[in-house]
Amino acid sequence: MNLEKLTKQLIEIESISPNDAGCFDILESALCEMNFSCERISYKNVENLYAVIGSEGPTFCFLGHTDVVPTGPLDKWTYPPFGGEIHNDHMYGRGAADMKGNICAFIEALETFLSTEKLNFRIAVLLTSNEEGTPEDGFIDELLEKLKARGETIDYCLVGEPSSSSTVADTIRIGRRGSLSGKLKIIGKQGHIAYPEKFVNPIFLISDLIKILKEKKWDEGNEHFQPTSFQISNINSGTGAGNIVPGELIMDFNFRFCSESTSDDLITSFEEILNSLDLKYELDWSLSGNPFLTTKDFFINKVISAIKETTGREPIINNGGGTSDGRFMIAMDAEIVELGPLNESIHKIDENVSLNDLKTLKDIYVNLLKNLST
Q1: DSSP labels, 217-270
Q2: Predicted pLDDT of residue 373
């Protein structure tokens, strides 16, 4: 199996979330050739691939996703976003770093390990086509609950998210903050701009709210996580006419919250602020994931050892960044570690991955599998 060729094949597929668009066909074929038992499990609008080999011992799972975010303006890309072109040892394309290249590195690691070592534990590969999308299309948390109900267990989970900062494998993550989003509609009263006594301007109404939200400390964080942060991503209002005050305003916002806060606490606090300002409003909430943290050190130490054996360096642990596939693995009570390529270019124009880094990751994964077998 050729790592470079396989990565290019996946990048050429326009698998914009929640559509796999054919990546699973390629990956399932490769896994079946290694005697994995493979099944496709659909949930809502999402397809998932679950593959297992081995029948005894603990279960180690590689968790990843084949979906990608949209490209953005095509004319801004130096190389085609679905071309997989190579320049200066870097392969360019949407999903190169997040996370098609890393999936391919693990597939090649499996081939190397299984051809040289005797398997004394179970290996699972779980891939979804909706990590980047929305809960409405279907995340794998409910799928994992169903796997658990039928007797499946996952003890150790390696998430292929791009965790590295400056050098490949310089950083691993053992936890992530949760993500809670909201869509707020502030209700005013539309009217002619020349008669302020006859309208209620929702743009003015929100100014006090924004000031309070900007200055509020939701918690202090802890040794594992940064403090909870609040950000506004979009504000929309207006009728399109210059002489009309709009009757409503829409604000999209997000909490990235640590384990010192809960989604219920944040919702309560936010709505208390709204009510204290005597605003008329409508509000919808969407919880993408709760915080998770691996507190046991067995699997963490196995990963760190594999990195040191391969690179001669010991990684730092940093639990920053956005959400990841790992948040779904809470259902299995698994020990979770994230390890992948550099995250500098993910979701950006000209996303790319170093092919040499992918080869290093492949070697780390081989050593990790060997460590788990001893």
Answers
A1: ------SSSPPPEEEEEEEEE--S-TTEE-SEEEEEEEEEE-TTS-HHHHHHHH
A2: 94
